[in-house]
Amino acid sequence: MKLADILKDSNYKLSQFAIAEIEQLEQTITLKATKNGDVPYTVCLVRQKAIKLTPEEAIRQLYLRVLSDRLHYPLSRIQVEYGVNFGREVKRADIVVMDKDRPNTVYILVELKKPKLKDGKDQLRSYCNATGAPIAVWTNGDQISYYQRKDPNYFEDIPGLPNANQTLADILQIKFTLEDLIANDKLVKENKSLKTLIEEMEDEVLANAGVDVFEELFKLIFTKLYDEWYSGQGNRRSTRSLEFRNTGQTEAALKTKIQDLFDKAKKKWEGVFSEDAKISLTPSHLSVCVSSLENVKLFNSNLDVIDEAFEYLINQSSKGEKGQFFTPRYVIDLCVKMLNPQEDEYMIDTAAGSSGFPVHTIFHVWRQILDDEGLQASHLFSLEDKPPRCKEYVEEKVFAIDFDEKAVRVARTLNLIAGDGQTNVLHLNTMKSPSKMIGMTFTMRDSNG
Length: 449
Fold this sequence. Notes:
CATH class of the largest domain: Alpha Beta
Protein name: Type I restriction enzyme HsdR N-terminal domain-containing protein
GO molecular function: DNA binding; N-methyltransferase activity
Domain DNA methylase adenine-specific: 304-438
CATH architecture of the largest domain: Alpha-Beta Complex
Organism: Halotia branconii CENA392
Shape: globular
InterPro entries: DNA_methylase_A-5, HSDR_N, SAM-dependent_MTases_sf, Type-I_RE_MTase_Subunit
Strand content: 15-25%
């Protein structure tokens, strides 16, 4: 019997596991005849007895293989259905790894029963608080999250689990370059979206942080974009360590480092934040947010990762009160391909929002330029150096206008990053006098070029 058949119609999946791990478990499956048909069983690696292979149990048996075979934890340190006391009630944690030096103390706690992240994290929080476990994992076999429990209120993302011969400090302090980020992109490895991570941060710390959520997350994304951009220039890609990372330093030291990086980003990409803008999150809140974002690769082939996140933040901030509607990105792609804009043509969007149409137009024309010059676009297309014609096209031919100040700042960020220079994004209300606004825009173009 195949595990895919067992997981069918459940919320559990197999994408987090290697083909060899799946095949090894499938080879151990036996079928027991019942009046309702054949029921799959396997012998549990830890309990060493036959157990019914439900969807949840299949994921547990696979994750036991991850812990023992990939991470080399001896089975003698692993327990399943571990009893966690809540007063008179005892609940059962799916998997625990006990501390090497304190065999009665839980070191890693794994939750599988709740196949949705929010439910699973709530369960993890209660189990970790009850046991004192410093490391927690949630997975449904498709998505996965790793956390460090810093105190009962905060769970920080960590890039993965230490193996049996490492400490948590070892994996936090490993040199981490842009190449490493590409290989360990959380959005790929954990099968998540940046929007999902933002929602998780809102639930975890931002809702009660007493700050403007849009502003603070905008600052962090802006800062991380700069860190990736700077590492992608010249020969830094394989040598420079990324700075937007929580490497186990004090929370105060981390805030100083991120603020300094934000100041450099403001200087590089002017006109988005004021010169005196500061990160307002407390060191504790900032530490959680940096840990959540550090393993996310924001730059990709068309900036759609941050595009989606910014659109979500704008909508959350405005709550629809300004009548804003954002065109789905696949619709934008279709429209741009149908219009097929050319390098010698002008493009203006008079209700640009977060600049979806202008940015996708830029990428469409850039690909034409690269083809014309015999160059290939990679998956880091939006990050890499491009011919001067690409920058000239952004500066001279593409214009965007919107009346919402937050949308304009997002649009300027995307255009600055795309063009690495001047951006023609205006904060105006074209409904008042469209012809006048367009005239002003092209007057600006003429004065610049």
